[in-house]
Amino acid sequence: MVGALKPFAQLKVVELAGSIGGAYCAKLFADNGAQVVTVGESRLTRSQSAYLDQGKLKPSSSHSSVMDRADVIVQSDPRSSFREPLVHAGPKAVVVGISPYGSFGPYSTWQGTAATVYAHSGHTYLTGDPQREPLMGPSTHPLYAAGLFAFVGAMAALFDRDRNDRIHSVEVTHHEVLTALHQMSFVRYQLGKDILCRMGNRWTGHGQPNGMYRCADGWLALSAPTDLQLETLLAITGLSDLLDDPRINSPADFQEFPELLDEHLAPWLFERNAGEVSELFQAAQIPAAPANTILGLLDDSQLKYRDFWRKAGRWSVPGAPFRFSSTSGTPSALPDSESGGGPLSGIRVLDLSKVWAGPLAARILAELGAQVIQVEAPWGRGPREIPESLVVAQRFHPDNIQGPDQWNRNGHLIKYGLNKESVVLDLSRAEGLATFERLVPTADVLIENFSPRVMPQLGLDEHRLHSLNPDLIYMTMPGYGRSGPAENWVAYGTTIDSHAGLSQLVGYRDEHPWKCGVAWPDPIAGLHATSAILVALWDRQSKGGVTIEAAQFEATISVIGDVIVEAQMSGREPSLMGNRDQDFIPQGVYPCEGVDQWIAISIVDELAWEVLCEIAELPTDWLGLTRSERLMLHDSIDAELASWTHNFDQIDLADKLQEVGVAAAPVLNIPGVLGDVHLEARSAFGRVDQPQVGPLVLPRLPIHFSAASERPPMRPAALLGQNTEAILMDVAGLSRFELSELENLAIVATEPPI
Questions:
Q1: Which fold has domain 210-290?
Q2: In this predicted model, what pLDDT tens digit does every residue of 3-50 receive, in sequence order?
């Protein structure tokens, strides 16, 4: 960590030994200076402990004494929920609980594993070959993601404790976390009844090519979602003639005919090395990256240049997922909290970010009560008119129709604009830049995720920003960081996914790497950015403003640290296991009654195996099989289970198995997730009446605070420039005459330029 902050020196955290989720939450506290004591017998493997237990202590006094003095107590269980409150928690302690399904709701007694939670939240349905069983994602991701949300919830609760004397307990569930981290699944279904499904090793909704391709020396992640990028790629590869095909009226049409492109592109790529192709395409601003192996990450030139790796005994482990530098200003107390507001009420955020990672971080801050001002260019939501083929390909507009003011109807922008305000300013012009600089001194946080060269080109580098506001927390989120051979690479989550090694953890058994149903780097980076901002807000009270750099590439690697350590310990790359897991035998995804209906089943212990043998009427001589014996017979067990499960409805069978203590869940599609009774009981979704679109149901922030009597309503995304006048006059202090001048110059607007 560069210029590492240690803002938590006075905080005492107790981690009740549980899962990776709790351990990662506690690690973020330890990394930032908190005294973290781990109580209880660790459930972590040797490799997990080597990564996650750095800087933690064992108690030198009784457990109850340690817990009495704790500011934060983190408890997590990877399989089941907590039924009893903590007895020894002190009166000022923030108690954080992480579990599969939570303490209330119809499924609060259910067991959960990564396989079943992926299935239940709709992610498994999106991953894999459409002609085969669907695939789960990286097995530890639900736990790491829950740990990140738990850290955010704990920090928010600490702010509320110290600012408003409200004491919270915090609850986070794997099920709600994964539900909240869908990309565009819920929006696309509600706008056009488009049910996203498995697309093979391609991404959907972003144009083509967009997926993984075999090269001479490995695999390449490639994305060319814009017309210009695709036309450039076709020119480089000598395939421009494909645009003459009668089925192709515009590059967007390749989304409907991806095989036409792959038929010619795949052979060209197969003859070349992934690294060389990546360099070639990146020089032309086409997102591409080699699919790193896990051990290959240790030799990655970008990571080496940035001195990313740290030593934990004999092993190299990921460094900090965010870096602090350029501290400025003087100690600054947080602004007064608004009565009845959320934990971050009174905090003002300027959001310049685009796409997913940055907007997600800003939206989380907004849901915690901050005022988030989305600063947009007049053309920031697109031109006045876009090709109908692109509308249909994106499926981001209601009924796949542009409609009036189409720039306010884009579902992607709507989802990540919830709870935010919109100000339009053309920062490329001197008058717009000067106006923005009047906003900067009023802000607590500024977020952007441009490439490293953009802000300096605007004249808004960190030095300028801190000269305007020494107490500003400036969050920059470049894909690869602000230094190194890849600093100017075009970074999309779909390419970083493979570059960071995630695709090596997903795939059918003993086959090639596979992409996940969503691009994990975006939400992982967004959650780390939120965490870093909360750390900096806490530290600002003693040190002032700061610049934070949260590289998407590095943040993504941070949540596979244990996998990287395990590969070093064993001396080999992890093998692709499909839906299996070395800890749960058997585990798999099995067919159910109906078309493309599936169920995920995990056997977590010997008792569950015995129960499954009885209920599924498996061969009697299997009853006493040990784990190792079951592993040897896994293929046969899978065949027997598949023969049994295909006779049942997926939801009925999951209910039946959970009733007898077997971890199971239906593999739901998006309508199924939206109709899930447990998510409904936990108010996991909120309804917004979006102007020019209509009602939408979207996931809420997956954090429950005990002190909140009810979850606050979600506010619809602002229309383009809806709040420009109010904010520029009331916050920036512009006069009516100055605002009129900006309008005459088209520096501000409520619709794109002609």
A1: formyl-coa transferase, domain 3 (3.30.1540)
A2: 445 789 899 999 997 889 999 999 999 999 999 999 988 889 999 999
